[in-house]
Specification:
The chain is mainly β and 197 residues long. 2% of the residues lie in helices and 22% in strands. The chain has 2 domains: 158 residues, no CATH class; 35 residues, no CATH class.
Length: 197
């Protein structure tokens, strides 16, 4: 049975011939820029400007889930004092790379991941306003106010699964066991996916 019958959010979804990109294309990126200069007096000029600038936001290439595989191996159960198994106990070539043949069940029992296809475009709003006054042909006074504001700007290292403040108020309730939707549907698992809780 596919995972979505168990009410578990998220599964590995592979690209298709008609959908080859990692992210959905944003067709609403509009970057207007405007500038105004006004000579108020013979030696005084007022200037103002505003613009929206989109910044590069490459996360790098996507994951190779299913097409590359790491074989987990617990070397020791007591902090490295004694080996828990030998290399001869591992499969000859490690875990197989099955490609996308398993679909949503790829890497069940092991960690997996992928990019979120909904990626807001980061941009910066910049503005300025100022006055320029020429005391003499060689002396000029310029006073400017300059500002900018970033929206959806990338921040690497931000824990995306960070709990909100109201969830932190639950305290020890966050450590309580919950029913496992995989229990009874998976015969064995190295990480407890077949446990009842």
């Amino acid at each position: 049975m596919p995972l979505h019958y168990y009410g578990v959010p998220g599964e590995v979804v592979y690209n298709t011939f008609n959908n080859r990109g990692l992210y959905d294309t944003s067709y609403r990126n509009f970057a207007p820029r405007i500038g105004v200069a006004y000579q108020a007096r013979e030696k005084m000029v007022w200037r103002a400007g505003y613009g929206i600038f989109y910044v590069p936001n490459y996360y790098g290439q996507g994951p190779n889930t299913g097409y590359s595989q790491t074989t987990p191996w617990v070397a020791s159960l007591n902090g490295g004092l004694n080996p828990s198994s030998t290399l001869s106990g591992l499969p000859a070539l490690g875990l197989p790379s099955a490609g996308n043949s398993a679909g949503a069940l790829t890497n069940v029992g092991f960690g997996t991941g992928g990019p979120n296809p909904i990626r807001p475009s980061p941009y910066v709003q910049q503005w300025m306003a100022g006055v320029q006054y020429a005391f003499t042909t060689n002396n000029l006074l310029v006073l400017n106010y300059v500002g900018n504001h970033g929206v959806n700007v990338l921040y690497r290292g931000l824990p995306w699964d960070m709990l909100s403040n109201n969830a932190l108020a639950l305290g020890n309730e966050l450590n309580q066991m919950v029913p496992n939707p995989f229990s009874g549907h998976i015969t064995s698992s190295g990480c407890g996916l077949n446990d009842p809780q």
